[in-house]
Amino acid sequence: MVKEIYKGRIKVLTEIWGLITQSWESITREDVTEMIKNAYIRNNIKPLRGFNANGLYEKELISLYVVGKYGLGLFEENKAIFDKLLDKEQEYENISKLILYGNVLEAFNKAGNSKDVLARALRTIFTQTIFSFESEDKMYKALRNLNESTNDQIKHTAKSFSRFYTAFKLAEGIAEGSIRDKLTYVATKKAIAISIGIQYPLPKVNYVALIAREVFNVNKKTLTRVLGPKV
């Protein structure tokens, strides 16, 4: 079941799909990105993000892809739309499947040896997970598989994304109200790290605070109560 905290986001993306199916032949990928941006701003929804604020709305095409394919079941009957407007997202998912199968070097090669593209593939799994279309185990498996690689760039991506995922889930917990104090925050952070099951630098409070503010609109009073006065 989709968490309450994401229902508004998914509703907006569903509405965008309604517009796309009516006009897809006459619009571009850039037009779709602009549609997402305008709809998010109107509805006070922030893009999913970590530290990197570059191309935030273009990255939200992954959210649109996931909702269209797994939430609305549009892929089979509307493949022409996906091929025209979301071809990159299809490629990210193909790379993510290679990661999950344990073929991480092949995945990295398919990503053009780009850590950014590899992270986009992980974002595909991440989005499926937070929207409750897949279990968190799928995310953990992908991160563990990447971390087992002897390639430094692949290993770095696993550690970096693990830190982001941990920070995001902590921010989500603060926004939902399941994390209300420092003790619960620390316990939850340790629990997430154990679930991921690899060694990686745990996120600092400023990283969690940034996501809580910029994605979930959590106010300073709440952040100060949970994370301390320095946020």
UniProtKB/TrEMBL annotation:
Pfam families: DUF2192. This is DUF2192 domain-containing protein. It comes from Saccharolobus caldissimus.
